[in-house]
Write a structure and sequence with these properties.
It comes from Methylocystis hirsuta. Pathway: Bacterial outer membrane biogenesis; LPS O-antigen biosynthesis. Belongs to the NAD(P)-dependent epimerase/dehydratase family. This is NAD-dependent epimerase/dehydratase family protein. InterPro entries: Epimerase_deHydtase, NAD(P)-bd_dom_sf. 36% of the residues lie in helices and 16% in strands. It is built from eleven helices and 13 strands. It folds into two domains: 197 residues, Rossmann fold, CATH 3.40.50.720; 101 residues, UDP-galactose 4-epimerase, domain 1 (Alpha-Beta Complex), CATH 3.90.25.10. α4 links the parallel β5 and β6. The chain is of the alpha/beta class. α1 packs across α6. The chain starts with 5 loop residues before the first strand and ends in a 7-residue tail after the last helix. It is globular, with a radius of gyration of 19 Å.
Amino acid sequence: MNGKPIAVVTGGAGFIGSHMVDLLLDRGFCVRVIDDLSGGREANLAHHAQNSDLACHWKDIRTLAPGDPIFSDCRYVFHFAGIGDIVPSIERPIEYMDINVQGTVRTLECARAAKVKKFVYAASSSCYGLAATPTREDHPIAPQYPYALSKYQGEQAVFHWGNVYRLPVNSICIFNAYGLRVRTTGAYGAVFGVFFRQKLAGKPYTVVGDGSQSRDFIYATDVAEAFLAAAETDIVGERFNVGAGAPKSINQLVSLLGGDVVYVPKRPGEPDCTWADITKISTLLDWRPKVPFEEGAPRMMQQIHLWKDAPLWDPESIAKATKTWFEFLGGDAARI
């Protein structure tokens, strides 16, 4: 491919993965996307439709095997493919372990056979559980639900392949990513999608608890920059937290959007605050977030029409959708 460096992006049609594709193409890479479109959308890559440096392979990562030509002559692998959401993971744990753990192992084996120069894994801050803040990379691990466990076990496999097979690996532990192309369908979850759809419909925002809980929102383009930095460094075998390092409360988001509010019960196993200590990545990789929340949220608001077909949630539908959450994570289960 024109002598350009080659990168593989699994989940490249997804939310963060598609921003990774944007960055890599902009930096002169040829990019090969692997995505089964269960969560990603071809539309996320439509602006690259005529770009000969992009090749898309619509396949499940669980079908990958060493020697797959998608990985031939590849320099970097960025592994975003997987399934998210809390409630479905409680209901279908086998599927989550299969895709997020075994799918990761298959991707690792392809990368190992291709002798790639770096494998960068998309980890989740949910592995820390109800964490002390600001949260450092050496914080104890305490997954509260199967999704978090599956992402952590995927990360453990990545580091194991680094230790045993000397595959150069790093892991980026993503806190609360937001931005354009964030998923609008599927299970009840991401606050931006929920609130934007409610705003379009003129309905009140369903705020969990009293809205004082805060999240370390990090814009998707900043996340992509962190992944590239983790690939290009000589450092290997490390986890790097990626957040803005500046938590914003849900009430602040509501104030920014403007509108009425209705409150729904606080959910067990959810932290009151997520807050990434980004000292490590800032020091070792010279990475810092560039897009402040006060700029990123309005960027999304400018394209709020994209959420017109997203699910419209109200207290009753949320209660039904999160019934399993309360059933299994309430009481003693929340302390596992």
